What we know:
Blueprint: H1 13-19, H2 26-35, H3 44-54, H4 60-72, E1 77-79, E2 87-89, E3 96-101, E4 107-111, E5 133-136, H5 139-144
Parallel strand pairs: 3-5
Antiparallel strand pairs: 1-2, 3-4
The structure holds zinc ion (2 copies).
Amino acid sequence: MTPSARGGAIDNLLERLRARQWRLTPQRRVVAEVLSGENVHLTAETVHERSRALLPEISLAPVYNTLNEMVAMGEVLELAPGAGPKRYDPNAHLAHHHLACTSCGALRDVPAGADVPVPADLEGFVVTGESVVFRGLCPTCAAATSPPAADADDGQVALSLR
Ligand SMILES: [Zn+2]
Ligand SMILES: [Zn+2]
C-alpha cells in the first residue's frame, strides 16, 4: 500500500515550491530540501540542524520563518502529535493519518481510510479537514518492552509499521 500510488500526491516539496514560482533563496531551498521525502516529520530544531549541514551560516529564525510560510501556503503541515515540539510534514496534499510511537516519538504516515465521522453537534464550527493520530508502540519499542498485558485494550494500537 503505497500512498504515492494515489495520484502521486507525495512529490518533491522543492518541485512544488518551484511550480508556485516561490522565490527560492538559498535558505528557503535548504529548508525545502531537508523537508522533502516520505514520512518526514521533523521539529524546527532538527530542520535547522540538517539545514546547517547544507548551509552552515543559516540561523534558526529564517528556518522558522520559512516553515511558517510553507505552512501558510499549504505546502507543509504543522503537527502537534502529542507532548513535545511541533513537527513539520511535507506530505500536505494527500489526506493521511499518523501512527505515533508514545515511547520514542517515531511518526509514520498512514493513508486515510474510511472517513472519520463528524460529530453531530459542531457548535457552529465549519470543518475543513481532520487529522487522526493512532498512538501506540512502534515495532522496535514494542519489542523492547515486556510482553503486553493480556487485557491491553484500546490504549495501544496494534498496527504493523512498515
Ligand atoms: Zn518507538
Ligand atoms: Zn504525515
